[in-house]
Amino acid sequence: MDTNKITIEFFHDVLCAWCYALSPRIEKLKDAFGDKVEIIHRSFALAPEPNSISQIFGSKEQGKKEILKHWRAANQNDDEHRINVELMATRQFDYPYSTPALLACKAAELQGGNAMHAKMFNRLQKAHLTECLNINDFEILLQCANDIGLNVTQWGKDFESHKVRQMLDDDQYRAYQYKINSVPTLIANQKYKLTGAQPYNILLEWFQQIR
C-alpha cells in the first residue's frame, strides 16, 4: 500500500457547467502525478426531481434563462470555451433535471469502475453543454453509452436497477456527511476540501500542500 497516495473524491453533476470546466484540470493533475493520486467520481444531484427546476427558479422558462447565465460565466472559466450557450438557448425541450444522467454514469461504473464513470460523465457533459442534446432522453443516454464502448444491453438493464439507484443515493449521503451543498467539490483523503472550478495552478497548489 502506498501511504503517499492521495485519494480525491470529485463530487459533480452532469448539469454543472462549472464541473465541465474543472474536469480537464482534474485529468491533467492525474496525468501529472499518475499512481500518486486516485480520482473517485461521485454524483451530486443539483436538481434531483423532474419539477426541481421549476421549484428552484419559479418556472421552467425562468430556470433555463437563469441557468444560461451560469453557462456564460462558466464558459469564461473553461480553458477551451466549450460551452455552447447560444445553441442551448434555441433548444425547445425542457431544461433537464439531474437524475437520469447521473444514473447513466452509475450504470457505466458497473462495467468499468470509476474510469468508466469518468468516461460516461465526460461524454454526457459534452452532449449537454457543447452539443446541447436532451440528456433526459433515454435514447441520447443510450447513444452516449454506445459511444464510449459500453455493452448497451447490460447498461440499459443496470440503468433501471435498484442497485444503481442505491449507488446514487450512497453518493448523496456521502456528500451530506461531508456537508457538501454545491459542486464541483473535491475532497482529498476524506478531509481536505476544495470547492469551485479553480484554475489548475490553484488545484496543483492545494494538492501539493496535502502531499
Quick structural overview:
The chain has 211 residues and is an alpha+beta fold. It has helices spanning 17-33, 52-57, 60-77, 85-90, 99-129, 138-147, 152-159, 162-177, 200-210; strands spanning 6-12, 37-43, 185-188, 192-195.
Description of the structure:
With 211 residues, the protein is of the alpha+beta class. It has one domain: Glutaredoxin. Helices cover 58% and strands 10% of the residues. It has nine helices and four strands. It has helices at 17-33, 52-57, 60-77, 85-90, 99-129, 138-147, 152-159, 162-177, 200-210, and strands spanning 6-12, 37-43, 185-188, 192-195. Strand 3 and strand 4 (192-195) form a beta hairpin. Helix 5 packs across helix 7 (152-159) and helix 5 (99-129) packs across helix 8 (162-177). The chain starts with 5 loop residues before the first strand and ends with a helix. The model has no long low-confidence stretch (mean pLDDT 97).
List the helices and strands and how they pair.
Layout: E1 6-12, H1 17-33, E2 37-43, H2 52-57, H3 60-77, H4 85-90, H5 99-129, H6 138-147, H7 152-159, H8 162-177, E3 185-188, E4 192-195, H9 200-210
Please tag this protein with its features.
alpha+beta; 211 residues; 4-stranded mixed β-sheet; Glutaredoxin; 10% strand
Q: How would you sum up the major sheet? A: 4 strands, mixed
**Side-by-side strand order of the widest sheet:** 2-1-3-4
Termini separation:
16 Å
- Number of helical runs? 9
Supply the helix-strand structural class.
Answer: alpha+beta
β-strand number:
4
CATH architecture: 3-Layer(aba) Sandwich
CATH class: Alpha Beta
Shape: globular
Strand content: 5-15%
* Relevant CATH superfamily: Glutaredoxin
Order of helices and strands: EHEHHHHHHHEEH
Report the CATH topology name.
Glutaredoxin
Radius of gyration, taken over Cα atoms and rounded to an integer in Å: 17 Å
Mean pLDDT: 97
Total of domains: 1
Please bin the fraction of helical residues. 55-70%
Low-confidence spans: none
